[in-house]
Specification:
By secondary structure, the chain is an all-alpha fold. The protein has 13 helices and two strands; from the N terminus they run H-H-H-H-H-H-H-H-H-H-H-E-E-H-H.
Amino acid sequence: MSEPLLLGALLAAATVRGAAPLLLAALGGLFAERSGVVDIGLEGKMLGAAFAAGAAAAVTGSAWAGLAAGIAASVALALVHGFACITHHGNQVVSGMALNITVSGLTAVLGNAWFQQGGQTPLLGGAARFAPIELPGVVALAGVPGLGAIYREVVSGHNVLVYAAALAVPAAAWLVHRTRFGLRLRAVGENPGAVDTAGISVAVTRYRALVLSGVLCGLAGAYLSIAHNASFIRDMSAGKGYLALAALIFGQWRPVPTLGGCLLFAFADAAQARLQGTPLPVVGVVPVQLVQALPYVVTIALLAGFVGRVVAPRAIGVPYLKER
């Protein structure tokens, strides 16, 4: 296999792994924002889930227990956001930012208090992490030039949460566009007054959407600490929640285009990791700080070019006050 093809396969594999948490969080935000609730708290829910998953996996030695703890923590945070925004009609952006700031500090304090490792959780190994899965056919295709390496690196060799993220795209599309819940979800996000008149609870529908957002953000956060990495590290979400929100806006609140946005951002992140220290034609070696900024530059450029053209759900960000 030629070196350029191998490097391309490795870059594609890194893109897939990097896109998984973005995609899970973005799909969670899709449900919340389709119901009319601004979900800027994706970052906080991911970070809280990453800490809970890493802590539980370290204590129990089970990755599945860590995953359950991560989902539970994320759902709890989503319900706090819902309590502030749905029940008490609070400002959704302020609530989401408060959630992000609180979780950033709380995870560091709890991590230091419980494990005395500077806010980190102990290193995980064995059954406490989700290991890569080798799909059938890797050995059989190993001798096929090009195809064997692509199948081994890009398709096979990922952990269960990466494959869960891939399956979440058609599942979310079906749920939003082919079910009664999806119809009510979209209606609440467009015209909650009409939905309420029809006898459907706007608050209940929005709470259900936030629970789904919590579950998906829980998967995303658990992926960071017990699948992609081997422990929780302080602020390890590193803005991925905001990138997921940007991908959601870029995808115009639809699952498949959102997948495209997540892959693009993940590709930029994988590319910057490989470009660090690599001399480029004419310009030579680019400073590491500029290379690390590449994913965020791509995000700003895309949003600057597309955000004026997207059409958000009409009721997004507007608390629903039932007329008496």
